UniProtKB/TrEMBL annotation:
Record key words, sorted: Isomerase, Rotamase
TM spans (from-to): none
Principal EC category: isomerase
Protein name (record): peptidylprolyl isomerase
All copies of domain PPIase cyclophilin-type, residue ranges: 1-175
Database matches in Pfam families: Pro_isomerase
Xref: PROSITE patterns: CSA_PPIASE_2
Its EC number(s): 5.2.1.8
Length: 175
């Protein structure tokens, strides 16, 4: 549950066991219940990468949060067979193997540039898709339309940071 409304995600533990399992650990340990939220929105009007993408990024709000779990091995979309479609949830990362549930994103519209073999990352490995929003894309789109501050953020993310992060109030596993 966010301050903008609910988002329900179906994790794909069968095809992306490491990535989905890591995200689930954040939920089960209550790490999204305090100090987490959505803080970055990438839109065509503020994107600095190629090809352009549209996503909302969230996770732990403090990048140095000591509660963050170690990164997980990268599961490319080539390995999992998953793709970055409207509502796909994926792990943010720098180099392959540096991603984890501390930072994740949700696609707004199909984002094939984030799949393995696409050009968004110079390494061609893409991002690790782990699940799909099954309820709450209206909430995702509301967050995506949020006000950003053109002065916030360093270089690559400048102008993509929300003026006010959208807080995650709680996250629970529903079987």
């Amino acid at each position: 549950m966010t301050t903008e409304g609910p988002i329900v995600i179906a994790l794909d533990t069968r095809h992306a066991p490491r990535s989905a399992g890591d995200f689930l650990q954040y939920v089960q340990r209550g790490l999204y219940d305090q100090g987490a939220g959505f803080y970055r929105v990438v839109r065509r009007d503020n994107d600095h990468g190629t090809p352009p993408i549209e996503v909302i990024q969230g996770g732990l709000l403090d990048e140095n949060d000591p509660r963050a779990l170690p990164p997980v091995a990268h599961e490319s979309t080539r390995q999992t067979g998953l793709h970055h479609l409207d509502g796909t949830v994926s792990l943010a990362r720098g180099a392959p193997g540096t991603g984890g549930g501390a930072a994740f994103f949700i696609c707004v519209g199909p984002q094939p540039g984030l799949d393995a073999g696409a050009l968004r990352n110079p390494d061609g490995q893409g991002f690790a898709a782990l699940g799909q929003v099954v309820f709450g894309m209206d909430t995702v789109r509301r967050i995506h339309a949020g006000d950003t501050d053109p002065a916030l953020g360093e270089a690559y993310v400048q102008g993509q940071m929300l003026k006010q992060p959208v807080r995650l109030l709680w996250a629970r596993e529903v079987k």
